[in-house]
Design a protein that fits this description.
Elements (H helix, E strand, L loop, with lengths): L6 H4 L2 H15 L6 H8 L13 H24 L6 H13 L6 H11 L3 H24 L4 H20 L6 H16 L5 H11 L2
Helix pairs in contact: 2-3, 2-6, 4-5, 4-7, 5-9, 5-10, 6-7, 7-8, 9-10
């Protein structure tokens, strides 16, 4: 390793992770290798090792990023202030519309990766359980019984996993327009016009 190489020649941890993210989401984990990453970035292979001990450490960093962003933010959204279950559901729906809160491409890539990685599958199962519990707790706070909370939370989770896995693409306005109906299906309650308009204002500007 050339210890005298400049920061510009080494790149940064962020750009290595960004390039690895692109490869993971476009081509799968098998494509995430040091030499192709270096070529993509126009950097030397040895510059990678300024930031990561090895490929496994890079992969672990991406998994932690996924756990913190997708699962962490989803849990946070279920705990956000809401005056009704409909408003709480719209808070959760923010995840499906705001890429800063939840990265659907990354979620799909992790799920595909986990099919051939038992250790990652265990972490994925744990993440799904944490998400389901958080949504169930959200329903419990608004007076749903334990069975209803569990079934409704699983319905939300399975619907979104299916949406991601099927690579559904639709205009933002169309998706936002459909979400009050989704909220009614998931909660059994018609959202108020006030809640709908506040939700629309966050996403259709």
């Amino acid at each position: 390793m050339n210890k005298s190489s400049s920061p510009k020649q080494r790149g940064s941890e962020t750009i290595w992770l960004s390039a690895a993210y692109d490869m993971l989401t476009e081509s799968g984990v098998e494509a995430v290798k040091v030499m192709p990453l270096a070529n993509k970035l126009g950097l030397s292979r040895t510059s990678f090792y300024w930031h990561f001990k090895d490929r496994d450490e890079l992969l672990e960093a991406m998994i932690r990023h996924w756990e913190d962003k997708n699962t962490g933010n989803l849990v946070q959204q279920t705990e956000a202030y809401a005056e009704s279950i409909s408003e709480a559901m719209f808070n959760l729906f923010d995840c499906w519309l705001n890429k800063d809160l939840f990265d659907s491409r990354l979620d799909l890539a992790i799920r595909n990766w986990a099919r051939n990685d038992p250790a990652l599958q265990t972490r994925l199962d744990g993440a799904d359980t944490r998400r389901q519990n958080a949504i169930s707790d959200m329903f419990l706070r608004f007076g749903f019984d334990a069975v209803q909370a569990e079934v409704r939370s699983m319905t939300v989770i399975y619907t979104q996993i299916g949406y991601i896995s099927m690579l559904v693409r639709e205009p933002l306005a169309r998706r936002v327009d459909a979400m009050p109906a989704y909220a009614q299906v998931f909660t059994g309650e018609q959202p108020s016009e006030r809640d709908i308009q506040r939700f629309r204002a966050r996403h259709l500007r």
